[in-house]
Automatic annotation (TrEMBL):
Residues 6-82 form the PglD N-terminal domain. Belongs to the transferase hexapeptide repeat family. CDD domains: LbH_AT_putative. This is PglD N-terminal domain-containing protein. The active site is at residue 138. It comes from Acinetobacter tjernbergiae DSM 14971 = CIP 107465. The record marks 139 as: Increases basicity of active site His.
Length: 216
């Protein structure tokens, strides 16, 4: 069986993800790895070919697999559906120094960058991204297509709903077993925000303590 592995997204983040993929599949040759990006097809990035999605699908390899290195969760979901329709395997990628402790459940398509940590008794949905130096502490529940930028501190007893985006360096205060702190569906937590109470769905919060960013 010949393997052909793609990193979807020839971007800055994609450049960081490719070495993690190579490390995880260290027995494969370099030419078996490519970037997928319709906007940059026909070029190279860090000496890897950049293919259009169509060219990737039409490659003659008997087994194709992809990790989606795109932070926008809406785009990530659309691409995941497209890959499903074309029978492409979703890869779960984690850096070799990722720490995962007891009773942790993670859905398909996850991506854990270097120095990420999941402690114990955690449930995470599909296509979760945890960028460098992020952690999820005990008794957290995280939905589908949630994105952590670098250095997110997600403390215990927190529920984060689908498509939420947590910005670089954000700190989310620990909840309690009977009253977890909730980040609502599609909410955005701004860079460096300190979240001390639940965040409604669809809003953006910024600052310390975090407050809703009002649209002008």
């Amino acid at each position: 069986m010949t393997n052909f592995i793609g990193v979807y997204g020839a971007s800055g983040f994609g450049k960081e993800v490719m070495p993690l993929v190579r490390q995880q599949f260290s027995t494969l040759k370099k030419e078996q790895f490519v970037f997928i990006d319709d906007g940059q097809a026909g070029t190279t990035l860090n000496d890897y070919s950049v293919l259009s999605y169509t060219d990737f699908i039409e490659n003659s390899a008997s087994h194709k697999a992809v990790t989606i290195a795109i932070a926008n969760s809406i785009v990530r979901e659309k691409l995941a559906i497209r890959l499903d329709q074309d029978g492409v395997q979703h890869l779960a990628i984690q850096a070799s120094n990722t720490t995962i402790l007891d009773e942790v459940e993670v859905g398909e398509g996850s991506l854990f960058c270097p120095f990420t940590c999941l402690t114990s008794n955690i449930k995470i949905g599909k296509f979760f991204h945890a960028n460098i130096y992020s952690y999820v502490a005990h008794d957290c529940v995280i939905g589908d297509y949630v994105t952590f930028a670098p250095g997110v501190k997600c403390n215990g007893n927190i529920h984060i709903e689908d498509h939420a985006y947590i910005g670089t360096g954000a700190i989310i205060k620990q909840g309690t077993p009977d009253k977890p702190l909730i980040i609502g569906k599609g909410a955005v937590v701004g860079m460096g925000a300190v979240v001390t109470k639940s965040v409604p769905p669809g809003v953006t919060v910024i600052g310390n303590p975090a407050r809703i960013l009002e649209k002008k």
